[in-house]
Each structure stands twice: as structure tokens, then as C-alpha cells.
Design goal:
Shape: globular
Largest sheet: 10 strands, mixed
Number of strands: 25
Structural class: alpha+beta
Strand content: 35-45%
Helix content: 10-25%
Radius of gyration: 23 Å
Distance between the termini: 56 Å
């Protein structure tokens, strides 16, 4: 059954409807110390129907489209207060986000590369890669008709030895296996270098009044501690410290924060969201002032704002949630060298993220860095370990004093409500003043 026919069948008994269909292939590769552990292609195929009736969404999914999905989706509705805006910024068209080398055409070469790269070192090295090539179609009763041919890549290298480990990850959208073949060797070199610094690192200071946060950790802090707090569904439920603060200063004047799914090649990018809303760049903070929130269709009604195109799902049979895409701090004017010089002796450079926890209601957070370096003479010197960052969201953002002039983005998967979606986050190097507890672990 054609998805458009299915949309017609679903729209008749419902107040609104969305049909999503996906078909393609996903390839996973894994090698450890020169031994191939996995090189498996898997089919990706499915169709879903979402219907809105009596203020409640119901969803049903199966491998093939059929009118049975309409009946099941209707049966899954209840009663609620979900609604749609009067004017939906619909997306219409076809997008080609493919790369040079199809995953199936280079499976053998990619597996050989993973084996080779993982075998070169005196430490344990694991190389993993997932590449996908899918066609995603979305049709909505409010007029969206979207088709996306998408290739995507994610990879990781973990080096370990003596109870320590260091990981480097990469990836993007609109790229095939060639991205893995080109980049994984450099990622392995970075992982091994980080591991060796970690193995010789001593304990760092417990407290600091000046820290330099690298682009990876800055991106994680902005995504986890700030970004979730501007997701419209949490704001509407009163679960955000930023609720009611639009127009207020929430960061230093150095800080502008953007969520932009239109960034070419970024892991969290998309041309339309999972409600068929056209992707757009959203400025969340401008020169330190909160400009607005991220929304899906329902939360845009609840907050009385425009939809920003941030309604996303992990799988086509999931319910839509407000999610980030590519979230980053815009660059400043300083070179990295000028920023390190300004930080002064005794400041600590915090590199990367091993995870942490946040509370969007209170704004508190704690993150563990992969590694740290004490700055001496305007340069990172001796490595230190078991360091991190504990603080509060607005205190951290208001403490930003200087930003470097280049942005780096890092890929990842963001979890919320039992769903994982691809995202990217980052920014420049940031010099931050305050009183920071650096102890982690």
C-alpha cells in the first residue's frame, strides 16, 4: 500500500495523521587488537501511522504499510490535551544526503581497515563503526510530503591499558564509508596519545577559580545542562530552571548558543523533523540573553510560540519528543594561544567528557572530563586525571570570559524518555571564571 494512500485512510477518522516509512541497510563493524569481531549488514524496514484524536496521539508500526495500522493507532489513543498550531511550517520536497561509497560496496575494505588500525599499538585498541544508507519518507495531513535519502556514519576508537581507557568518536550525515576510511587512523592516534597522557597523569587540584573548557566538554555542558532546559515540553511542564526567563540574562555577553539542524554534514542534522516541519536555525541565547525555547508542534501551542522543527523520534513507531539537533556555542575572537595566555598559570584545561549528571529544575550539574592539563607559561603542561566540573548552569555560562575563534562539533546520541537520537554539540575553547570543584572520582 502506498504511504500517501495510507495517510488518506488515517486522516478520515482522525483529527490529524502522520505516516512514516523507512527502508535501507545498516552495517556494523568491530575489531579488537587486530581481530575482526563483527562485520554484519542488517536490513532496516518499516512503516508507522500516528493519529491524533480527542487530544491524544496513538502510534502503530509494522514492517509493511496496511490499513491495520490505522485501526491499531486509533485504538492506542485516549483522551488528552495535545493540539496543533493553526499554521504549521511544512516541509515539502526530496533531499539527497548521500556519500561517495555505499556501505555494502566497501564492507570488506572497512573491515580490513578496522582490523589494521586496531592492531598497530602496544595497548589494547577497539575500533567500531556503524554506517547506514536509508530512504525515509514522511507524509502529514497538514501538508508535509518529505523524502530523504540519507547515508550516515558513526565510529569510535577506545585505547585501554593498566585500568585506564581513552575514547575518541566521530561521524556525520551525508557521508558513507569513506568517512571512516579517512578518519579512523587519526582517531586511533588521538585515543592512544590521550591514553598515554592519562597513564602518566597525577592528581589535579580540587578547586580552581579559572578553567579552560575544550570544545567537546563545552558542548556536553551546553547540551546537557542548558539544552535540555530549553526543550519546550520540559518548560511547559515546569521542569526547567529557565521557564519564564525569556528576555533575561542567563549567560555572559560573550555567549551565543544556537541549535541548528541545517549544519551540513553534522551528525545531528536533518532537513525536516519527524513531524514534517522544515528544519531551521534557532538562536537560544544571544549575547547572554535567553531568546526562546525549542519546540515540537504541541509544545509550540502550549508555550504560544512558533514550532522550531525539533520534534524527533528514535524509531518510526515512537512518540514525538522535543529534542536538540546540533547545539553549540558560537565562536569568539581570541586565538587558542591568546586564551591560554589569558587563563594564566595554575588554570586547568579540561578535555573531553566521560559523562555526568544534570538537573534541569535546579540547574545543577557534574561532569567528568577525560583528562586535564595544568596551564603554565601560556601552554598546557603536565596532565592530571580524575578531574571534572561541578557547578550550576547559569553560574557557569555567566562566568564565560573569553572564547576562541574556531568551533568544533562532536557527535553523540542523546537519551530522553527511553529514546536515543543522533545529535552533535560543541563550540570553541572557553575561559570560565568562578569557584569550581574539579574533583571527579
Amino acid at each position: 500500500m502506498d504511504p500517501l494512500e495510507l495517510l488518506g485512510a488515517a486522516s478520515e477518522p482522525a483529527d490529524a495523521a502522520v505516516v512514516r516509512a523507512v527502508e535501507g541497510v545498516r552495517v556494523s563493524i568491530e575489531a579488537v587488537n587486530g581481530e575482526l569481531r563483527k562485520a554484519d549488514p542488517a536490513e532496516v524496514k518499516g512503516c508507522s501511522v500516528s493519529v491524533l484524536r480527542d487530544g491524544s496521539w496513538g502510534v502503530a508500526a509494522a514492517e509493511e504499510p496496511s490499513t491495520d495500522l490505522v485501526d491499531k493507532a486509533l485504538a492506542a489513543t485516549g483522551s488528552g490535551e495535545a493540539s496543533l498550531p493553526d499554521d504549521v511550517p511544512v516541509a515539502e520536497g526530496s533531499w539527497d544526503w548521500t556519500g561517495k561509497v555505499h556501505p555494502l560496496d566497501a564492507l570488506e575494505e572497512a573491515a580490513e581497515t578496522a582490523v589494521d588500525v586496531s592492531s598497530r599499538w602496544d595497548h589494547d585498541v577497539e575500533v567500531s563503526c556503524t554506517v547506514g544508507a536509508v530512504r525515509y519518507e514522511l507524509y502529514a495531513s497538514w501538508g508535509s510530503e518529505c523524502r530523504l535519502d540519507l547515508w550516515y556514519l558513526s565510529y569510535g576508537v577506545t585505547a585501554s591499558d593498566g585500568g585506564e581507557e581513552y575514547s575518541v568518536r566521530g561521524g556525520g550525515r551525508g557521508v558513507g564509508v569513506e568517512g571512516f576510511l579517512e578518519d579512523v587512523e587519526a582517531a586511533a592516534e588521538d585515543a592512544v596519545s590521550g591514553l598515554e597522557d592519562l597513564m602518566r597523569a597525577g592528581k589535579g587540584p580540587e578547586l580552581a577559580e579559572r578553567v579552560v573548557v575544550d570544545p567537546e566538554l563545552l558542548g556536553v555542558v551546553v547540551h546537557e545542562a542548558f539544552g535540555h532546559a530549553v526543550e519546550g515540553d520540559l518548560v511547559a511542564r515546569g521542569e526547567s530552571i529557565l521557564a519564564g526567563k525569556v528576555g533575561e540574562r542567563v549567560a555572559s555577553g560573550e555567549v551565543t548558543v544556537v541549535d541548528d539542524p541545517t549544519v551540513e554534514g553534522a551528525f545531528g542534522s536533518y532537513p525536516f523533523d519527524d513531524e514534517g516541519v522544515e528544519a531551521r536555525r534557532t538562536v537560544l541565547v544571544k549575547d547572554g540573553v535567553l531568546e526562546g525555547f525549542l519546540t515540537d508542534l504541541n509544545s509550540s501551542v502550549e508555550l504560544g510560540s512558533e514550532p522550531t522543527g525539533n520534534g524527533r523520534v528514535e524509531a518510526i513507531g515512537d512518540h514525538v519528543q522535543v529534542r536538540m539537533s546540533v547545539t553549540y556555542v558560537e565562536p569568539g575572537d581570541a586565538s587558542k594561544e591568546e586564551l591560554f595566555e589569558e587563563a594564566g598559570d595554575g588554570a586547568v584545561l579540561l578535555v573531553g567528557s566521560k559523562g555526568g549528571q544534570t538537573d534541569t529544575v535546579t540547574g545543577s550539574f557534574q561532569f567528568s572530563a577525560k583528562l586535564g592539563y595544568v596551564i603554565e607559561g601560556g601552554e598546557p603542561s603536565e596532565p592530571v586525571k580524575d578531574v571534572g566540573l561541578t557547578g550550576d548552569t547559569m553560574g557557569f555560562l555567566k562566568g564565560v570570559r573569553m572564547l576562541s575563534d574556531e568551533v568544533e562539533l562532536h557527535p553523540g546520541y542523546c537519551g530522553k524518555g527511553g529514546q536515543l537520537v543522533p545529535v552533535a554539540d560543541g563550540g570553541p575553547y572557553a575561559l570560565v571564571e568562578g569557584r569550581f570543584n574539579l574533583r571527579s572520582g
